Amino acid sequence: MRWLITLLTCCLPIPVMAHPHVFIDTGLEFIVDEAGQLTHVRVTWAYDEFYSLLVLEDMKLDQDADGILTTAEESRLTGFDAQWVEGYNGDLVLTAGDVPVVLSRPQEPRATTEDGRIVTSHLRKVEGGSVPANALSAKAFDETFYTAYELTRPVTVSGPVSCLVERFDPDIDGQLAQMQAFLRTLDADYDLEENDIPLVGENFATEIRLSCPDT
């Protein structure tokens, strides 16, 4: 999806448009119990090289620039992206039978580096205990599209029951065509920021559907 920034800034009729500034390779682990109920979701984020460099420099970590953190440095880095403002959904939307699934704030944060990239994970508990994992849908996205999430890391299910995981990737070309058509309707001096940038993040999000048997 990193090619999107080129298309959005070079190929659209006006230069002011929402496009990603941070790219995150994402992984999801759905944790279910013996009754096929979802109890937790573990989220993994691997930040792009440039953003990782900015964070490490700002926090004065990896001073020898070998891309490997010491145990003390990992401890300092852990939780840097888990200090969420009230109401932030973690850029993860879950629904069960079209009913929103409410998740806790991040727990058990972890952080390290892989080839110079920051990789973090956190655990989120289903509020209220659990929900049936049948007809469960999950999407990782930033609705403003400032951050682009790509589900390139493993998507797994952990628990005593077998579950079916299905992946539905977005129609990138179709979404770009719709965005271009919308922009062509605007005057050249139209200020998207003053008039609300279209919230397009979900349009480019991969959907994961989970089906676990009731027991």
TrEMBL record:
Signal sequence, start to end: 1-18
Keywords assigned: Signal
InterPro entries in the cross-refs: DUF1007 (IPR010412)
A Pfam family that the UniProt record links to this protein: DUF1007
Record protein name field: DUF1007 family protein
UniProt source species: Ruegeria haliotis
